[in-house]
Amino acid sequence: MGIKIRGTNLGYMKLDKELLVFPHPNYALNVERTSGQKLWVNCPALAYIIEHPDGLILWETGISTKVREEWLPAWQWLIDVSEITPEVCLEARLKQMGLAPEDFKYVIQGHLHCDHAGGLRLFEEAGAEIIVHEDEYKYVFQNIEKADQFFVREDFALLGRKRPTLIYGDQEILDGVKLISLPGHTAGTMGMLVRLNHTGWVLFTSDAMYLHESYGPPPVGSPIVWDPGKWASSVEKIRRIAIEHEATIFPGHDETGIKQHADGSSVFTPLNVRPDYVYE
């Protein structure tokens, strides 16, 4: 039996597109474009369910139902979360798919920002093995006391009580599933490379690459980056891996992906991020 992937949308944030890609080549001012408007966009929070012969995997957990209480006012001034309601968050989406936290063997966090780890607390009593990069784990427990740098302590506090599996470097965790170290956006951002029988290799980037427009070359950065140099190196690592595997890239906040070819050429491709569509 092969591996299958289904995606689910955990609600749209609304924000200035240049929080994600800056300077955006289409919107930055220059000598040929001396005036222009900002672009306010819908930015999806995403999770993916990977059906593996060894058990169900959940890739990232979206935004907490307590977003309005836990996110700092400054964050909610930048980012409109009015459409993030309990009905679109992880627990409700899983129920719609006939799933519950107890059904998962692994929960993998590409990183622990509050728009990616908000549903993690659902798994404190479940039997799932939670997997986080070692550098991410150390950074948040050493530096984040409450809410800061787009981390919310309540999202990951359970990891102090329920010890996660810590990953360092690039590691294959199951047959056909490899975690890739992609630091820069945060100290321990990871991607995940998955081999499908028909689609081929799929590479999830988390926020090592927000959008397909980030890919370049050269890669286009963001104001929300922990280490810009490491971030740029990680995007180039994404490119190398994608070329080697002729992978389809799934960015962290995008419904458009990138199909990378071995000759270095690539094309943008729509992503079907809905539970009734199966990549296999």
UniProtKB/TrEMBL annotation:
Entry keyword Hydrolase: yes
Domain Metallo-beta-lactamase positions: 44-253
Highest taxon in the source lineage: Bacteria
A Pfam family it matches: Lactamase_B
Keyword list, A-Z: Hydrolase, Metal-binding, Zinc
Alphabetical list of InterPro entries matching this protein: MBL_superfamily_lactonases (IPR051013), Metallo-B-lactamas (IPR001279), RibonucZ/Hydroxyglut_hydro (IPR036866)
Cofactor(s) demanded: Zn(2+)
Keyword Transcription: no
PANTHER family recorded: 102 KBASES UNSTABLE REGION: FROM 1 TO 119443, QUORUM-QUENCHING LACTONASE YTNP-RELATED-RELATED
Family: Belongs to the metallo-beta-lactamase superfamily.
The protein, known as: N-acyl homoserine lactonase family protein
